[in-house]
Amino acid sequence: MKLTFLGTGTSMGVPVAGGFGPRFAERDPRNQRYRCSAWIQTAERSLVIDTGPEFRLQTLRAGIRRIDALMITHEHTDHIAGLDDLRAYNYAQKNPIPVYTSKRTEEAIRHRFSYMFPPNKTPGSVDIDFLPFKDAVSEGDCTIVPLPVMHGKMEVLGFRINDISYITDVNHIPDETAEKIRGSKILIMSGLRWTPPHPTHFTIPEAVAISEQLGVDQTYLIHMSPFVDHAEVAKRLPSRVKLAFDQLEVTV
Predict the structure, then answer these.
(1) 51-62 pLDDT per residue, tens
(2) By C-alpha distance, which of 177, 114, 137, 170 is closest to 47?
């Protein structure tokens, strides 16, 4: 199983609009971060997590030719703004794309993208099928387990796909979810910045501490702000924790 990081940046992307903030991106391409998304490939399935504002560009850059299912963590714009780019896959695959997410996120998408759904569906618009998702489901050779976590006061979903656990936008992992993560070979988790603390995201030191508590072999941090300089911060991390970057591929 291979996972490609399509994007590893915070909600505004890095660098941010207008060029505000530090200029790290100019000297290291690992600091140029699209909004968070991931592509998982196995012998039988091509799966995507989240479709942010750069999704079209992400698919072109990574060479994604098929999407067998989509997993959506939550309904914030940086995770769903690219849903319309799924149209090309509908046309090529000639079928709706299955979507796994929470009921709340489904309702938010139906409201914000009402033109995609009856009775107001626009001809040629995206076709997606929301599937029930409260417990583990099978997609070919993949077992997908929902991982509820807290993003401030909002519950969002992470996903365990076989031996990879993916969590973004998190500042608290409930005990029950932690038990589902244990035994993963790779954990992917947000680490917004080194300091100061944030009300809805782990800082990098907090994410490192959680990784150590869970005992995962390798952790990759995502959802990083413009204030995270890859080269500088990477030197401060333990060997079992790394900063991800766009287009990085990891294999289990």
Answers:
(1) 999 999 999 999
(2) 137
Question: Which domain CATH number covers 23?
Answer: 3.60.15.10
Beta strands across the sheet bearing 154-161 = 137-139, 142-151, 154-161, 164-167, 186-190, 218-222, 241-243
Q: What does the block give as tokens for 79?
A: 């995770």
CA nearest neighbour of 135 among 160, 108, 98: 160
The 10s digit of each residue's pLDDT in 195-209 is: 999 999 999 999 999
Q: How far apart are CA 82 and CA 159, in angstroms?
A: 20
Tell me which residues of the chain have a pLDDT lower than 70: none
Backbone angles phi, psi at 89, to 5 degrees: -70, -35
> Residue 169's closest CA among 123, 125, 221, 234?
221
Structural domain harbouring 11? 2-251
Q: What is the mean pLDDT of the chain?
A: 96
Rounded to whole angstroms, how far apart are CA atoms 26 and 190?
23
Number of compact structural domains in the chain: 1
